[in-house]
Amino acid sequence: MSGFRFLATAFAALLFVQAADATSTDWWIIDTARELLEGRGSNVEVTSDGRLRPVDGWMVGATFDEPVVMAAARAADGSLMVGTGHPARLYRVRGTSAELVAEIPAEQITALLIAPDGAVLIATVAPGVLYRWNDGALNEVGRVGEGGLWDLALFDGVVVAAGGPPASVFRLDDRGLVRWVELPDIHAACLEVANDRLLVGTADKGLILSIDREGTVGILADSPFTEISDLVVGDGSVWATALVGEPVTTPRKTKSNGDEAEKTEVETEVTVTTELKLPKVNGKTATSEVIRLTPDGGLLSIHRFLKEVASAIAWDGQGVLVGTGYEGEVWRFVDGGGARLATVDAVQVVGVIDGGAALLTQGPARVFVRGGDDGRAGRFRSPAKQFTQPVHFGEYRVEPSSDDLRIRFRSGVSATPDGTWLEWSPWLPAARGRVPLPPARSLQWELEIPAESGASPVDRVEVAVVEVNLPPRIKELEVEEPGVVYLAAPPASGPVIEAVHPDVNGIFTVIDESVPKNNSSTKGKKYYRAGFRTVSWSATDDNKDPLRYSLEVENREGAHFTVRERITGAQLGVDTSAVPDGAYRFRLTASDAPQNPAAPLETHRVSRWFNIDNTPPVIS
Predict the structure, then answer these.
(1) pTM (2 d.p.)
(2) Burial status of residue 556 (CB atoms within 10 A of its CB: 0-12, 13-18, 19 or more)
(3) Domains identified in the chain, total number
(4) Which of 49, 101, 291, 566 would you label with 31, given CA atoms 20 to 30 Å apart?
């Protein structure tokens, strides 16, 4: 088998690789508010400057026999006045005790307002009446002709009430409740005062409106949801919760043909919401959202929920607290987003009172009060991190370092935790250590902060990872037809080229690999040379490591001959004119040794068999 002569093409395509080191250490770092707000906490809040700190949770206060509780207001003596529904009753709550102070002749209390003189104003539905309770005496002070009252506020020194249908704002004067402004919707659902403007959230169209002292109405926002359930003003911005309300009914006018006995109510019209084009999150329809109107009028969607129904909102001094339904959660939001702050033992949080000092819930109907004497540690669970490739886990660090904190980890393959993930690791000292888990594709950590901890807020959590080195993959190995060669530039000799003399590599010669290609082909421009065979390949590395190749030729008897080693290109042209006739194939080896010299991985692939026939033509 002497006399082999091989020729490499002038174009040797360098495989494109990114400068990523499969054996280098990377760090998964969480140290910003935006990153932290993708996690979930319990008695731990995310500050606007991106820190974790423990906060007081909520404990069960008073529990009510009535199924509905939706209204509360803080009295001058510090007690909490609470209104219920089915039946409608007024309670005074102190701690865990609830004192019944009045039976209200209505189905449900919807709003309470403490008047400047200390009296309690009570709004109801069925019927829509405004009551005043003071020193044990209950008096009706206003009534709407149809519909109900949904919220109360003190605006420009006057008591105002939101009601509907139709959506209206009423003012209380000596005559009772007087319709002040009619709005372009079915119900006025909630009220909030912002300096010299009264803000109104509506139901059926989901509008946020503003009314000035003269009664001029302006539209601030039109939500894709059907109801603005609550409003609050904080730090110059207007925050709101929006949801899909129940279908709204509007009674038609009474029909009569002159006979009182035949006067009947016609069936109510129902606004159908099945054709709503609601926002989607990852292809799933959102159930509710938190929105923010900036001081200059910009409308921002801060967060959209897929399961939770956001129904209550309050400003806590630096961010907003949002009460949700589905699992009875309280979320906290700042400009960059929000995270779960706590879960209470109820189906839905329907009211956040006094900036979070108390919560109202349903399922069961309760008051939860905020306090830190329950002794429960705060916990914060990071978002799950999925890496591009499986990784080895190394050192972790929590800053600032504290002996009071604990951390644990779990890992899996899927992007989000499911039944395939490993169980949580044991709790570990949070200051510094090593993640005690085998290689995996995804990771999550949970931090525990004791309630009595004097530690500084957590600024940063780091986890070191190293990609699991994976072998290269040879996707294609192609042998061209006889005589085909590829060059980056035309040869001086024209379309027929001559092989150069053997170089220091031995009898296998190459054309200059440094010549850049000057056409759109990935192989170069096609030329022809009798006796040549070109082999080309395509290979990748999942770790983005640069690759190096070696090429051999094999005959049917299994004999291997090295053609070239340490190849960085993607093709070679082989002169087979001196090769004995017969069947042959190429064997390519791809190695990630340039990036992993200590422990390189290799992959092999053989080409199809091809025939070499150098018999000269016969003229007959």
Answers:
(1) 0.69
(2) exposed
(3) 3
(4) 291
Residue with tokens 């760090």, as numbered in its chain: 27
Beta strand 197-203 pairing with 207-211: antiparallel
Same structural domain, 453 and 480: no
Q: Is the dihedral of CA 113, 218, 320, 306 positive or negative?
A: positive
Q: Which two tokens stand for residue 503?
A: 């170089």
pLDDT digits (tens, 9 = 90+) for 103-146: 999 999 999 999 999 999 999 999 999 999 999 999 999 999 88
Answer whether residue 176 is part of any domain.
Answer: no
Q: Check whether residue 497 and residue 447 sit in a common domain.
A: no
- What tens digit of pLDDT does each residue of 228-243 get? 999 999 989 999 999 9
d(CA 254, CA 360): 38
Task: Report the alpha-carbon distance of residue 173 to residue 333 in Å, rounded.
Answer: 38
Range of the domain at 462: 26-43+378-467
d(CA 355, CA 103) in angstroms, rounded, equals 28
326: number of CA atoms within 13 Å, CB side? Answer: 13
Paired with 209 in beta bridges are 200, 219
User: 359: Cβ–Cβ under 8 A, 6 or more apart, which residues?
Assistant: 58, 323, 330, 344, 349, 351, 352, 353, 367, 368, 370
